C-alpha cells in the first residue's frame, strides 16, 4: 500500500535529516545572542531543563503522530481524527512553516552574502565601526539581500525537488557530519586563544541573579524553535521514518545533537568574543558584526571566517529544507501536484514573502502592520502564535484525543506492555506540557504584560 511513498532509507539518514532540521540558525545565530542577552550560564541550565522535560517528549509525540498518519501534517490529522476539526492543527503547521521559511530565508540570504564576503576577504583592514556600517548598509539595501534570499531558496528547492531519500536524506548525510567537523575546528581555535576562560565562564558559570521570568519563558520558546517543534516539521519527517525505527531513541538523539551544537556554537563564539574584549550581548548582530571583528584580530582569521560562515549556511540550509518539505508535501499530497510543480509553486510564493521580509530591513522599513515590520510580523505570527498554538494542540491531541494504545504502539511497538518511562511521558504530555506551552503563549502575545498593567 505504502510502497510508493518516498521515505528515509536508514537510521543514520533519519537522524541526519531530523538533526539537520533542528540544528540551524536557531543554534548558531540565535542561541548565542539570546543567551548573551539573558546573562549566560543560568539561562543555559534552564534551557537544558526544558529540552529534557518538554522538548524530547514533544518531538517524540510529533514523530509518532506523523508516522501513524503517514502524511503531511494536514493529511495526518485527517487520517487520525477523521470528521473532526483537528486538521486545523495541520493547517496551522503548514502556515507556520511557510511564514518561518519566508523570514528564515531572508536571514539565510545574509549568511550567503557574508560567506561570499569572507571568501573575498572583504573584512580585512576594516575597523569595528566600518564592519557595523557594512552590516547596516547591506541589510538596508534593496537588491542584494533580495537576490541572496532567492538564491538561498533556490538551493533549498534544488534539494527538496529531488525527493526525500535522494534529496533530503542524501544531502543531510553529507552536510551534517561536515557541519560537526567545522564547528569542532572553530571550537579548538576559540578555546586556545589567550583569555578564553572568561568566555567559558560566561557560558557555563550560572549566575541566577540574572535570571528573571522573561528569561525562563524565552528559554522555553528558544527550546521549541531550536528543536523545530510545533510546525509540522517533525510530523512530516516522522511520516518518512520506517516502522522499525525506535522513535524514542531518534527523538532523544536528535534533541541531544541539537543541544550539543548549540553549546559548541557558544564555545566557538564566547571565548573568542571575550578574548578580544568585545561585549557578549550585542543582539542579532552578534555573528554578523561582532564575529568578523573577532576574526580580523585572530591569527588565521581569514580561514576561520570562511569556515564560520560556511557553517551558518549549511545549518540554515538543512533547516530550510525541512520547512520547504512541509509545504511541498502538503501540495503534493493534498493538491495532487507533482513534486516538481509543488516545489516550483512553493519557491515562487515563499520567494515573494521572503523578498518582502528581506526588504523590511531596508526600503520597507517604514511599512508596518500592528507596529511591526513585515519581517517582525511574520516572525511574531509564526514563532509566537502559530508555533505555540500548534504545539499546544498537538500535545492535547496526543494526550486526550488520540488513543493511548495507538501512541504506545508507535513508541513501544505493537502489543507491548507500558513501561515506567512511557507512563512518565504520558503524564508530561497530558498535564505538564499543555500548561507550560500555554504559559509561553500567554507570555508571547503579551497577555501577562496586559494583565500586569490592568492591576496597576
Ligand atoms: N530548528 C531550526 C533552527 O534552530 C529552525 C526551524 C524551525 C526549522 C522550525 C524548521 C522548523 O534554526
From TrEMBL:
<protein>
    <submittedName>
        <fullName>Sodium-dependent transporter</fullName>
    </submittedName>
</protein>
Amino acid at each position: 500500500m505504502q510502497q510508493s511513498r518516498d521515505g528515509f532509507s536508514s537510521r543514520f539518514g533519519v537522524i541526519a535529516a531530523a538533526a539537520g532540521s533542528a540544528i540551524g540558525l536557531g543554534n548558531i545565530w540565535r542561541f548565542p545572542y539570546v543567551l548573551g542577552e539573558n546573562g549566560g550560564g543560568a539561562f543555559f541550565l534552564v534551557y537544558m531543563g526544558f529540552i529534557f522535560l518538554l522538548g524530547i517528549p514533544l518531538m517524540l509525540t510529533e514523530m509518532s503522530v506523523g508516522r501513524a498518519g503517514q502524511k503531511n501534517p494536514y493529511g495526518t490529522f485527517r487520517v487520525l481524527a477523521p470528521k473532526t476539526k483537528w486538521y486545523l492543527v495541520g493547517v496551522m503547521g503548514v502556515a507556520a512553516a511557510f511564514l518561518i521559511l519566508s523570514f528564515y530565508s531572508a536571514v539565510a540570504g545574509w549568511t550567503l552574502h557574508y560567506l561570499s564576503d569572507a571568501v573575498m576577504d572583504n573584512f580585512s583592514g576594516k575597523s569595528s565601526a566600518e564592519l557595523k556600517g557594512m552590516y547596516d548598509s547591506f541589510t538596508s539595501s534593496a537588491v542584494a539581500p533580495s537576490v541572496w534570499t532567492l538564491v538561498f531558496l533556490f538551493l533549498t528547492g534544488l534539494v527538496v525537488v529531488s525527493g526525500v531519500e535522494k534529496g533530503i536524506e542524501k544531502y543531510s548525510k553529507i552536510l551534517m557530519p561536515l557541519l560537526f567537523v567545522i564547528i569542532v575546528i572553530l571550537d579548538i581555535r576559540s578555546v586556545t586563544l589567550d583569555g578564553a576562560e572568561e568566555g567559558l565562564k560566561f557560558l557555563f558559570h550560572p549566575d541566577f541573579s540574572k535570571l528573571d521570568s522573561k528569561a525562563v519563558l524565552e528559554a522555553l520558546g528558544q527550546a521549541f524553535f531550536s528543536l523545530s517543534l510545533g510546525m509540522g516539521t517533525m510530523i512530516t519527517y516522522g511520516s518518512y521514518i520506517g516502522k522499525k525505527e525506535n522513535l524514542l531513541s531518534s527523538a532523544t538523539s536528535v534533541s541531544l545533537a541539537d543541544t550539543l551544537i548549540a553549546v559548541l556554537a557558544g564555545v566557538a563564539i564566547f571565548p573568542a568574543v571575550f578574548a578580544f574584549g568585545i561585549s557578549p550581548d550585542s543582539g542579532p548582530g552578534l555573528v554578523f558584526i561582532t564575529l568578523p571583528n573577532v576574526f580580523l584580530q585572530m591569527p588565521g582569521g581569514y580561514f576561520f571566517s570562511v569556515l564560520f560562515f560556511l557553517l551558518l549556511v549549511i545549518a540554515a540550509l538543512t533547516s530550510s529544507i525541512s520547512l520547504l518539505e512541509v509545504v511541498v508535501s502538503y501540495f503534493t499530497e493534498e493538491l495532487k501536484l507533482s513534486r516538481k510543480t509543488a516545489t516550483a509553486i512553493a519557491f515562487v510564493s515563499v520567494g515573494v514573502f521572503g523578498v518582502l521580509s528581506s526588504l523590511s530591513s531596508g526600503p520597507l522599513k517604514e511599512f508596518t502592520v500592528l507596529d511591526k515590520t513585515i519581517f517582525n510580523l511574520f516572525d511574531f505570527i509564526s514563532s509566537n502564535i502559530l508555533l505555540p498554538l500548534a504545539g499546544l494542540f498537538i500535545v492535547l491531541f496526543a494526550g486526550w484525543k488520540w488513543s493511548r494504545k495507538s501512541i504506545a504502539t508507535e513508541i513501544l511497538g505493537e502489543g507491548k506492555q507500558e513501561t515506567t518511562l512511557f507512563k512518565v511521558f504520558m503524564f508530561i504530555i497530558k498535564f505538564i506540557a499543555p500548561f507550560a506551552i500555554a504559559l509561553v503563549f500567554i507570555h508571547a502575545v503579551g497577555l501577562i504584560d496586559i494583565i500586569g498593567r490592568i492591576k496597576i
